[in-house]
Amino acid sequence: MKIKIIFYCFILLIIEQKINVVNGCTCVEETFEDKYCRADWVARVLITESIEINEGEETDYLIRYTVKFLDSNVTKFIFTSANEGLCGVKLKNETEYCFFDLQMERVTNRGRGADDN
């Protein structure tokens, strides 16, 4: 009986080692309006150019977008994974988008601001 238990534990250990663990991004099911209202910053932008970047054999491809902030003369680069499975986002050139997000401090604090207790 003891040998069976050891054997089954060994089999479970082997199976556990063979299972691929996948950590992907998830999006909380919220309406567009809720996400917009919770955002720390909002920007209306125009995508003017996109370039795929390969930084090496072991890294995933990135896409660098040249972004013009509308209602200002500011142009910046934003980067995203080329792989949608890694939360990459495909954006079309010469298309207007509304970007908004929470600051990382709030995200790591489970969505609570510094003055929320």
UniProtKB/TrEMBL annotation:
Record keywords? Disulfide bond, Metal-binding, Secreted, Signal, Zinc
Top-level division of the source organism's lineage = Eukaryota
Cytoplasm as UniProt keyword: no
- Principal localization reads secreted
Q: Which GO terms describe its molecular function?
A: metal ion binding; metalloendopeptidase inhibitor activity; protease binding
Q: List the disulfide bonds.
A: 25-87
Q: Where in the cell is it found?
A: Secreted
Gene Ontology BP term (one): negative regulation of membrane protein ectodomain proteolysis
Q: Which GO terms describe its cellular component?
A: extracellular matrix; extracellular space
Signal peptide residues are 1-24
Where do the annotations place Zn(2+) binding? 25
PANTHER family per the UniProt record, alphabetical: METALLOPROTEASE INHIBITOR (PTHR11844), NTR DOMAIN-CONTAINING PROTEIN (PTHR11844:SF25)
The protein's name: NTR domain-containing protein
